[in-house]
Design goal:
binds adenosine-5'-triphosphate; single chain; nine-stranded mixed sheet; globular; eight-stranded mixed sheet; 25% helix; binds manganese (II) ion; alpha/beta; 25% strand
Length: 547
């Protein structure tokens, strides 16, 4: 990053650096027209002018398309194998190594592509609301929509902070419009997302899905956080309006982190990425990235109203005449998304920091309909479930496919981990012990049967469960041990019919439930085998009792 030092000196000051002619020559980028930290309205104008497909929705959001890739490409992610970090990284399917030379080739390719463009966009902003743990991030990209996305998702600098920005800690080179060269060593497709932990550089080729950038920042945090004893977490966070007491919700994609954290009765700290330090928690991001499929003002008013001027709506279908968005259409993808600055949610707490959480919630979307909607975990069960990271998705929307697919993703964020899962688990265990936090498992998935027979838990019921956790009402309720998983299931919960709390009694065929539960227990045990050597005998014994 020595190059960026001289770059910072070359940066013009005052109003000028908010517009054109930012100097990127120290990076070997010779484009003259470089626009830094443009205001959203200006980015809209650029997007409409430069981008054939961009449009404005009838609520004022910027509609944009990411091309072929409408989700992350985990198989195309690479981490530079470097002598300084080699021993730290959990190498395998999540962290696939590339050599430094190949990284430089891809970086060069991105820059060569940049140099063919007549105009580039730069976003300089922060990651991490804790001033002691704040990273300066620079994004260099070709599409105004990507610039607006990162303007929304990173923490926006004030005018003064932008003037004083200096050398960034990390740089994202987003040349996603241009493919990787498949003949480059180690490339297996036209997509390549490469991270160098040492230089904190990220190169994106062959995918325009904006979510890659934010998860690149998260991956960096997942390396540097634990290195300094800070636990980085794939979770949302909220706080009580009166007491300020906080709570976090871990969960894999689609389990409800964003939906359930947009709660008008609580303060929103963040919807996806947080860190837990010796002083409490802080959000890494400055915005939210919500799933938009089937979004409706009746069920999710907070998120719905946030998709207005300044927000990016990615891969949605809209009426050509009225520009009214059809949130039910999955014609382009099931993974439609809206990205907005966190202050678009009315109860956002700025700055996005809070004290130590009193409740830690693991969200799972169990499409088998086996796990109870709410259960309490002992400290060792908490470790077992954190390392397992279970959720189950429906296999697909094609007719005839009714069998859900179990996913186990350690720490509820496998794709973004850099260290071995045990590193994060140990940090979590220590924090839970130290702060005496309660741990809950909440199933936001199926009830009354598996996918095909049962139905997804009503959002209003899950919200009632979350409220009961936060109001301390659940902590004093009598519980019953689940016969298969051994977890403590409350026998009552305010706002929730008692008969849905024990899943077996919601199935019309109890024998079918027993078979499904046994099968799922078997999948848990099979998955956990690979971690048995890394945990204590107590944690090992905290899984399902029957398999
Ligand atoms: P990602 O990590 O991909 O951002 P996420 O955990 O933030 O995922 P959400 O965006 O909150 O997931 O998605 C949950 C989806 O499930 C939403 O579309 C929501 O409307 C829907 N949903 C349906 N029923 C429930 C429920 N009982 N609890 C939570 N979400 C539900
Ligand atoms: Mn989310």
């Amino acid at each position: 990053m020595a190059t960026a030092e001289s770059q910072a000196k070359a940066a013009p000051d005052g109003d000028q650096d908010m517009t054109a002619d930012f100097d990127l020559t120290p990076y070997g980028i010779t484009v003259k027209d470089v626009r830094r930290n443009l205001a959203p309205a200006t980015l809209y104008a650029e997007a409409i002018r430069e981008d054939d497909q961009c449009d404005i929705s009838d609520t004022g959001a910027l509609i944009a398309y990411s091309g072929d890739k409408t989700g992350r490409s985990p198989k195309d992610k690479r981490i530079v194998e470097h002598p300084d970090s080699k021993a730290d990284v959990w190498w395998g399917p999540v962290n696939i190594p590339i050599d430094q030379e190949t990284f430089q080739i891809n970086l060069e390719r991105a820059k060569d592509y940049f140099n063919t463009r007549k105009r580039l966009y730069v976003v300089d902003a922060f990651a991490g609301w804790d001033p002691r743990n704040r990273a300066k991030v620079r994004v260099i990209c070709t599409r105004p929509y990507h610039a607006l996305f990162m303007h929304n998702l990173l923490i926006r600098p004030t005018r003064q902070e932008l003037q004083d920005f200096g050398t960034p800690h990390g740089v994202i080179y987003n040349a996603g419009e241009f493919p990787a060269n498949q003949r480059t060593h180690g490339m297996t497709s036209k997509t390549s997302i490469d991270l160098c932990l040492e230089t904190r550089e990220m190169v994106i080729l062959g995918t325009e899905y904006a979510g890659e950038m934010k998860k690149g920042v998260f991956t960096m945090m997942n390396y540097y956080g634990p290195k300094r004893g800070i636990l980085s977490m794939h979770c949302s966070a909220t706080a009580d309006k009166q007491s300020g007491r906080s709570s976090i919700m871990f969960g894999l994609s689609g389990t409800g982190k964003t939906t359930l954290s947009a709660d008008p009765n609580r303060l929103l700290i963040g919807d996806d990425e947080h860190c837990w330090t010796d002083q409490g928690i802080f959000n890494i991001e400055g915005g939210c990235y919500a799933k938009a499929i089937h979004l409706a003002p009746e069920t999710e008013p907070e998120i719905f109203q946030a998709l207005r001027f300044g927000a990016v709506l990615e891969n949605v279908v809209f009426d050509q005449e009225t520009h009214h968005v059809d949130f039910h259409s999955s014609r382009i993808t099931e993974n439609t998304r809206g990205a907005y600055p966190i202050e678009f949610i009315r109860n956002a707490q700025i700055p996005c920091v809070a004290g130590h959480p009193s409740d830690v919630i693991f969200l799972t979307c169990d499409a088998f309909g086996v796990l109870p909607p709410i259960s309490r975990l002992s400290p060792t069960q908490a470790m077992y479930h954190f390392i397992s990271g279970y959720t189950a998705k429906i296999a697909g929307t094609e007719v005839g496919i009714t069998e859900p697919q179990a996913t186990f993703s350690p720490c509820f964020g496998g794709p973004f981990l850099v260290w071995h899962p045990a590193k994060y688990a140990e940090l979590l265990a220590a924090r839970l012990r130290e702060h005496n936090a309660r741990v809950w498992l909440v199933n936001t998935g199926w009830s009354g049967g598996s996918y095909g027979t049962g139905t997804r838990m009503k959002l209003s019921l899950t919200r009632a469960i979350i409220n009961a956790i936060h109001s301390d009402e659940l902590a004093s309720v009598k519980t019953q041990a689940d016969p298969v998983f051994g977890i403590d299931v409350p026998i009552a919960c305010p706002g929730v019919p008692a008969e849905i709390l024990a899943p077996r009694s919601t199935w019309s065929d109890p024998a079918a439930y027993d078979a499904a539960a046994r099968r799922l227990a078997g999948l848990f045990r099979e998955n956990f085998k690979k971690y048995e050597a890394d945990v204590s005998p107590e944690v090992r014994a905290s899984g399902p009792r029957i398999a």
